[in-house]
Design a protein that fits this description.
Layout (H helix, E strand, L loop, with lengths): L32 E2 L5 E2 L1 H36 L1 H7 L8 H22 L4 H28 L4 H5 L20 H16 L4 H17 L5 H26 L4
Antiparallel strand pairs: 1-2
Amino acid sequence: MEVASLLPVQGPCPVCYSPSHAPIKRSTRFRNVRYRDGDSLNVKRLTVVIRIWFLSLATCAAVVAFSFVRMDVPMALHFWKVGRVLRPLNEPFGAAIVLSAESAVILAMVLARLVRGHISVFGETLAIACLTSICAYGINDHVLKVLFGVPNPTDVMLGARHSFNFWAGSENSSFPSGHMALAGAFAGVFIRLYRASIWPLSALLLLAAGLLLVGDWHFLSDVVAGTFFGISAGILAGEGRAAHSNPER
């Protein structure tokens, strides 16, 4: 037997080697998804976001509970006479008008995409904001209002009790505010994707909330709960948009 045959074979054995022995390259897709603004979606960041949201939820619940017990009815009584002056605004700014406008925007973006083959990033964001707003309004009015069943300020002023009537509500119930869910969801998308829009949109939301209170369309607790629900939905949609449009680098 030759000496060369006793020497160890250099490199992988041609018979024993298979792709299964190759080093495993683990994907980092879900460990490090980078966004245009430099953020990194990882477990630590997700944990922080969830904690902040639950802290905000607890704060919102406390404010809603205090407002429901202490402030809702007194504020409605205070603004009852002023609200009659603002009643004509119910027609041009009704939910049906706003929903129709948002649907028209979505349709326009779809047609632009079909004709031109693409739309701008702002156009995509606008379409997502409108779609999120419509969905948030639908869930709010057809699920949450029916679930909580709180009479609206007009019914309370006419003698109804300001209380929760679970699973006995309707679209005309008061809690949470459908207008603020509608506006908050739209604003939440832009707040997540365009940081410069935070202050202007916050000011507009505050103005809308004030009008709803002064016009006696909603109680303070309705406005707070509807705003929180809407903004939460909008930020969630914006987060999904950011993750989808910015693959790993």
